[in-house]
Specification:
- Helix content is about 40%, strand content about 10%.
- By secondary structure, the chain is an alpha/beta fold.
- The protein has a single domain, classed as Rossmann fold (3-Layer(aba) Sandwich), CATH 3.40.50.720.
- The protein has a seven-stranded parallel sheet, with helices on both faces.
- It is globular.
- Bound molecules: NADPH dihydro-nicotinamide-adenine-dinucleotide phosphate and 2-hydroxyethylsulfonic acid.
Amino acid sequence: MKIENFLRVQRIERPDYNMPSWKPETLDLTNWGVLITGATSGIGEACAWQFAEKGARLIMVGRREERLVKLQSDICAELGRDKKDIVFFAQDVSKIDELESFAKKLPFDCDILVNNAGLALGTDPVDSISIDDVRKMIEVNVMSLIALTRIFTEGMKARGRGHVINISSVAGIQSYEGGCGYNASKFAVKGFTDSMRMDLAGTPIRVTTVSPGMVNTEFSTVRFEGDKGKADTVYNNIVPLVAADVADNVVYAATRPAHVQVADVYVLATNQGDAKYTVKRVGENLGAPEGMASRVQGA
Ligand code: NDP
Ligand code: 8X3
């Protein structure tokens, strides 16, 4: 439908749009090319599944090639998709000098860029933080995201469609002790994304940040250098988000009608009030009064 007609139908000729039966027309992602960085685990992997389920073509990126091989074959088998539409590249996105040539190898256009690859390293205070670790966080969380955005927005602009979805964090909204390197990187993501949204305001390209709180993925295991026991204490006696919850937010933003730009999705676990200082470890009933736990899920 032409945009003029679409707007007329949406805004003028649809007297029923306040009725309970009205649903927004969602964007059909069939054959849209979605590039997801950090698709080998956690939020990126969950995004791959949910975008594939919507009919999008995928370019899945990460360093662990064996995981990408398996993910490609699992998605194709489970969803009946063709391997030529669900492709992967083993690429370290922090190798900024390689990204231009990486982009030239892609078999189809990137219409939706999900800048998800990222990590936190350590919880040391500022006077003992490892500068090497900070550099790694800035390179992956910030520099690669900026470089990939620079590379792909040019084509999106020329083709007249596109969406950049940057995975930020509650850590980009609120700082906490022991987070200075990671906080710096995620505040940078937020600053960059808000600014680029202004740069692209005159185009059909939409720009979104998704800013989650606690999500139980490999994130904390990476942060604590593989110490799973330490990682598990982060999620002790609290029901955290899972990767699919965040992927659901990402796909929500991507599937809104073309004139709707979800600027930011800030999503926390129910028993989390902020990044670290209001985390109520009240267990599986989410803090419902004794005997009322079954009501939590809507029963
Ligand atoms: P995971 O550790 O499960 O996933 C991180 C992903 O990033 C992996 O696929 C990893 O792939 C990829 N990655 C890391 N470094 C590189 C690199 N140099 N090149 C390419 N890919 C890389 O964590 P999450 O899924 O939780 O994290 C995803 C994003 O969500 C991150 O940006 C994180 O900061 C953010 N986030 C996470 C939260 C949480 O509580 N879990 C909360 C808020 C935000 P590989 O190692 O194979 O390269
Ligand atoms: C990851 C969540 O709380 O460790 O972005 O910063 S947190």
